Amino acid sequence: MIEQQKRKPIGILLKEKGIINEEHIKFALMEQKISAERFGEILEHLGFITQYDVATTLSEQENIPFLDVDEVLPGKKELQLFNKNICLKNVFLPISIEGNEISIVLADLFNLENIVQLITRQTGLRPVLHIGEENKIINAISANYYFLENPIESQIDKEISLLKLDIEHARGYDKFIHLILQYAVKMRATDIHFRPMEKSLSIAFRIDGVMHAVLIAPNDLLRAISSLKMKSGIDIAEQRLPQDGRFSETILNNDYEFRVSTIVTEYGENVVIRVLSVSSSVMGLSQLGFYEEDVNQVEDIFNEPFGIVLLTGPTGSGKSTTLFAGIRCLDLMKKNVITVENPIEYRIPLLRQTQVNTKAGYTFANAIRYFLRHDPDVILVGEIRDQETAGTAISASSTGHLVLSTLHTNSAIGSISRLKDLGVNSFLIADSLLGIVSQRLVRKICPNCKEGYKPGNEEKEYLGDMNIEVLFRGTSCEVCGGTGYLGRTLIYEILKVDKNMAVMIDKNEPLDAITGYAVKHGFHDIFSICCRKVIEGVTTVDECKRVIGKMRI
Ligand SMILES: [Zn+2]
């Protein structure tokens, strides 16, 4: 291991690796004079680097393995060995003990020798080190110690008993709702469902794309739905029509926006809350699951000077995450990037970000018109879903600007007909469309309980390769909550529109013919990427079927 005094500053390491350049450093130093933040923090806030870049760079430099903190669950007895504040101060998290060794994940290498001494002194065990992303470690320390002292399930049970006893209805529902939000965040849920049933209220979470029932509460708690509506700015007197609202709340030191929608069912109002983390840091393309050769393709498309780039996929398929990962490949120092979003999920100071305000008349289409007078190089439009936005976005892209947006279609090639449906003529599509990335998210096999097995014929047939000898699956463990899966990765297809394909689009040639041409020129469809990830042991055939369907696309 390198001696403390010889360790290179992270800025230099990142520059050597080509992640940042001299100009980024100069700009960050100017910013530092005003903001007085740490240099690395500034580089990150400006969108030049991610914490993943920092952690993996340090990991390579020091030869200490990288660990994704989201993929581990620290044991109770390990947590109890340390005081939470010591962990926070030194940014390390104990994970597990095996024999006379204790696994630790940490972020700050300048303090490495002190942390190693501290752990050895405190536990008498030999620390086995891993490097993780600092923000994830800090969040994990706060959350794990909080839930160690305040087990969430028993807090919710206690609150429900108190609410049941409260015949006068003097006790509010705010605490109950807050506990459910906390529970959802702990479970990494993306959506929270309040489902009134005949005799009870069922609460379910969508985690990694799959619904999980988490709680059945007595019918009395249906009153919580009125509180939720009030909190979200929804008219509580209206109980017959679907409504939408939103609220923001800080959960375990992180800011979240909750998008609320109601529909009326036979047993009462059904509420779904979409959980959006406001402080999420932007990730890189390879971290999201793009293969290295495809990262280059996507970077090429995003670096075109004008035209339109579309991200497609269903709601919740991570389109805006990819859009922002793509924006990170742009040289933000040299380009004026303006966005209109609904809502702003990732904040990057070097972008000019705006948010739709329908009530005030600030729509996607209007925003693009204003932007054209604001000297843009790149315009990001959160979503194209109507004729007006489609028309304005395409005309902006054919007048010398790069337009980035998302569209709801099932496949990359389907975007062409979708744009036609939205009234854009074939000539304009051919003239401006640069490329389409269509994507879905599949769950990854839990690394903690992953095992190989001999696949049956049906699975081999599905994958189109009868010679496969081994596939992988999760057997279920505490870390993955018994599901065998942990976290998600992208499956995708990238359609690059070259000159010949543009001619085909212009001539209104059938989509089959365009697909045929694309395949001949190296296009891989989403199914083939998914199969590759199954064969590599990243995900499973079941997961592939769940997301893409049982029929080959
Ligand atoms: Zn597991």
Overview of the molecule:
- The model has no long low-confidence stretch (mean pLDDT 92).
- The chain is of the alpha/beta class and 553 residues long.
- Helices cover 39% and strands 24% of the residues.
- It is globular.
- Strand 7 (243-251) and strand 8 (254-265) form a beta hairpin.
- It has a 7-stranded mixed beta sheet, with helices on both faces. Strands 6-5-4-9-8-7 form a 6-stranded antiparallel beta sheet.
- Helix 9 (152-165) packs antiparallel against helix 10 (174-186) and helix 15 runs parallel beside helix 16.
- It has 23 helices and 18 strands.
- Zinc ion (ZN) is lined by residues 446, 448-449, 474, 476-477, 479-480, 484.
